[in-house]
């Protein structure tokens, strides 16, 4: 209901968002990305040793032969991307999954191919499952130039892990090991709203994460995706809100910077993020790409992905073509998530004034104490972050869940309408 109200207001359009079939997969002509100074590259590694019931992301069980086929196709997609985008400057390279470390023996070749086809100027980041962490792996990653590590701990509490059908993996020692090897940024992913999780359980997780080496924590509410196989359901919305409230209070006492609605970091440390870029190119099955005028989504099927690449075609299944205001509302959404609306960045990107484009909405938000205006733009207040926390979960279930559900079942959908 809430997204149905906000969508037409912010987009200045009553039509639903509509993903349509991608029709330019054979087109290798150059596409000018306007030399963006904040262009990320995301590479999806869709393999896991076991499937976590709560995880919504695109993945399959690891198979050595399939992984090799996938690696070869990925290298070809990187080269295809260079034909279309002409060796763009890349400000970050991020490996997600799945479990990227399962392809550790191929990562050097993948990174070298990226460097041959793009100007890689920024950080290298990778997601790790605690079961994969050992000294040999970490030293290899450091030798390859990775400076940002994110570990999917979810919780240090045995009972919470059991509620997620997750086995213990000596999590504390694994984070200590990451710190000992030495990485610039160590992000620990935690989940709150787990069945039977108490506020004290969550606070202990947060305190322990920073005590043993985290420079940042990403604390995500437990969301029950329709296609996930969760045996237990998340805590009610009001309980999750209370937990977020306690997180914010605890972060203030610890002197942490709140870098987004759900992330908290030590001051003066490099922040880790996979999605908050003005534009990004996504490679691999299910990977998304964000540009000024469109949002593209690759086929989720590994087999269809490989088939497309081997025919010298892009593997894009769906595209959402932005209107002027739908692109602006996308920017608003993720910058509110980052707790900050910078008016100069908005003007640089869109050539218009934030305060004029959304005069009424910003005025209402200020009166409701959801935003506070400063010399740089607008800061999201603590009250505003709770509202966004609620909206984000609704958005996830109404938009992301529906899109991914369709894409998981049909590798080449005709269209998806999102109301």
UniProtKB/TrEMBL annotation:
PROSITE patterns assigned to the protein according to its UniProt record, in alphabetical order: RADICAL_SAM (PS51918)
CDD domains in the record: Radical_SAM
SUPFAM superfamilies associated with the record: Radical SAM enzymes (SSF102114)
Domain Radical SAM core residue range list: 33-257
Cellular component GO terms, alphabetical: cytoplasm
Keyword field: Iron, Iron-sulfur, Metal-binding, S-adenosyl-L-methionine
Tree of life domain: Bacteria
Molecular function (Gene Ontology), one example: 4 iron, 4 sulfur cluster binding
PANTHER family tied to this protein: COPROPORPHYRINIGEN III OXIDASE (PTHR13932), RADICAL S-ADENOSYL METHIONINE DOMAIN-CONTAINING PROTEIN 1, MITOCHONDRIAL (PTHR13932:SF5)
Name of the protein this chain belongs to: Heme chaperone HemW
Species in which this protein is naturally found: Romboutsia weinsteinii
Taxonomic placement: Bacteria, Bacillati, Bacillota, Clostridia, Peptostreptococcales
């Amino acid at each position: 209901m809430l997204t149905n109200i906000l969508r037409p207001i912010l987009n200045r359009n009553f039509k639903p968002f509509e993903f349509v079939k991608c029709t330019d997969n054979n087109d290798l002509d150059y596409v000018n990305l306007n030399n963006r100074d904040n262009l990320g590259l995301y590479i999806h590694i869709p393999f896991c040793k076991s499937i976590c019931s709560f995880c919504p992301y695109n993945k399959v069980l690891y198979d050595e032969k399939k992984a090799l086929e996938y690696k070869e196709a990925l290298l070809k997609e990187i080269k295809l991307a260079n034909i279309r985008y002409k060796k763009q400057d890349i400000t970050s390279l991020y490996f997600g999954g799945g479990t990227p470390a399962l392809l550790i023996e191929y990562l050097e070749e993948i990174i070298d191919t990226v460097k041959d086809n793009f100007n890689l100027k920024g950080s290298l980041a990778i997601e790790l499952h605690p079961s994969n962490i050992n000294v040999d792996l970490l030293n290899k990653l450091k030798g390859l130039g990775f400076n940002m590590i994110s570990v999917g701990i979810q919780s240090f509490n045995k009972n919470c892990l059991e509620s997620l059908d997750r086995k213990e993996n000596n999590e504390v020692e694994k984070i200590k090991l990451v710190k000992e090897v030495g990485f610039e940024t160590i992000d620990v992913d935690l989940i709150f709203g787990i069945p039977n999780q108490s506020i004290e359980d969550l606070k202990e997780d947060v305190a322990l994460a920073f005590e043993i080496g985290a420079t940042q924590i990403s604390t995500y509410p437990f969301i029950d995706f329709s296609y996930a196989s969760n045996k237990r359901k998340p805590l009610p919305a009001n309980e999750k809100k209370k937990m977020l409230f306690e997180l914010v209070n605890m972060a203030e006492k610890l002197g942490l910077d709140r870098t987004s609605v759900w992330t908290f970091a030590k001051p003066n440390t490099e922040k880790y993020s996979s999605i908050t870029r003005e534009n990004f190119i996504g490679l691999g099955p299910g990977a998304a790409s964000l540009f000024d005028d469109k949002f593209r989504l690759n086929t989720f099927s590994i087999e269809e992905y490989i088939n497309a690449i081997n025919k010298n075609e892009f593997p894009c299944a769906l595209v959402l073509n932005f209107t002027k205001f739908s692109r602006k509302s996308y920017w608003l959404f993720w910058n509110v998530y980052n707790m900050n609306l910078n008016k100069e960045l908005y003007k640089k990107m869109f050539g218009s004034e934030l305060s004029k484009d959304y005069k009424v909405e910003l005025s209402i938000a200020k009166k409701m104490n959801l935003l506070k205006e400063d010399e740089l733009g607008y800061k999201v207040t603590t009250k505003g972050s709770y509202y966004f926390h609620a909206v984000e979960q609704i958005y996830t279930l109404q938009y992301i869940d529906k899109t991914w559900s369709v894409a998981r079942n049909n590798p080449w959908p005709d269209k998806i309408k999102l109301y």
